[in-house]
Amino acid sequence: MPSENQQSANNLPFSGPRHVAIIMDGNGRWAKSRGKLRIFGHQAGVKSVRRAVSFAVSRHLDALTLYAFSSENWNRPAQEVTALMELFVRALDSEVKSLHKHHVRLRIIGDISRFSPRLQERIRRSEELTKNNPGLTLNIAANYGGRWDIIQGVQRLAEQVQEGQLRPDEITEESLCQHVCLNEQAPVDLVIRTGGEHRISNFLLWQIAYAELFFTDVLWPDFDEQVFEGALTAFAQRERRFGGTTPADAEHPGGNFC
């Protein structure tokens, strides 16, 4: 987690992305290349999470969203899933006090109902402890899928229609936006994927419509401040238009994607 020196190292607001999302890929391959079980890669990946959060705080990002466990990851071997769940519990127990100390607000996005009562309770306590913190918002996507996110938003709108609170012709992008995850946060400006794959893997499908994408061959356990800085440098060189013909014509979505 960030040191006091890191927190005060840069007193000026960072002019780059406000919200960065990362698909943390490559833990298993990192472990395999060292002749170890996949869980060793996931354990090493926790250290990279600490580095990424520390860096995000030092650069004054508004939000950092990490793709920790997708809804498709339940299809992995049962032993690996069990180990991942236990690692999640231990990480919450060991990291939340440090997050709180450094004013980080923790949010877990995704369908947590499938998690054990023990893990759900850890999540609830961690979010409650940090909910009023004014610094970086750290979103952990766990049992999350972009299609699930959109569907649950549509279901909420359908409930409003059924209850007579909303007409079908009143359903708009703006109304759906209010019911997807991260709707109250800054829009996702930059998506980083480690591990060399060039795909989104059902991550924040609605929220990253105008985000810049950055792919790196670096495996997640090797992701460090230098690689993160390289992604921000690449972002700064992009010409963002948001559907306009020139940057001057572009209209950035406001406080959220919509």
UniProtKB/TrEMBL annotation:
Known EC number: 2.5.1.31
Cofactor: Mg(2+)
Chain positions recorded as substrate binding sites: 26-30, 38, 42, 70-72, 74, 76, 193, 199-201
Cofactor binding annotation: Binds 2 magnesium ions per subunit.
GO cellular component: cytosol
Matching Gene3D superfamilies: Decaprenyl diphosphate synthase-like
Top-level taxon of the source organism: Bacteria
One MF term in the entry's GO annotations: ditrans,polycis-undecaprenyl-diphosphate synthase [(2E,6E)-farnesyl-diphosphate specific] activity
Alphabetical keyword list: Cell shape, Cell wall biogenesis/degradation, Magnesium, Metal-binding, Peptidoglycan synthesis, Transferase
Enzyme active site: D25, N73
Residues that hold Mg(2+) according to the record: D25, H198, E212
Gene Ontology BP terms: cell wall organization; peptidoglycan biosynthetic process; polyprenol biosynthetic process; regulation of cell shape
Catalytic activity: 8 isopentenyl diphosphate + (2E,6E)-farnesyl diphosphate = di-trans,octa-cis-undecaprenyl diphosphate + 8 diphosphate
Family: Belongs to the UPP synthase family.
Record text on subunit structure and interactions: Homodimer.
Main function: Catalyzes the sequential condensation of isopentenyl diphosphate (IPP) with (2E,6E)-farnesyl diphosphate (E,E-FPP) to yield (2Z,6Z,10Z,14Z,18Z,22Z,26Z,30Z,34E,38E)-undecaprenyl diphosphate (di-trans,octa-cis-UPP). UPP is the precursor of glycosyl carrier lipid in the biosynthesis of bacterial cell wall polysaccharide components such as peptidoglycan and lipopolysaccharide.
Protein name: Ditrans,polycis-undecaprenyl-diphosphate synthase ((2E,6E)-farnesyl-diphosphate specific)
Organism: Affinibrenneria salicis
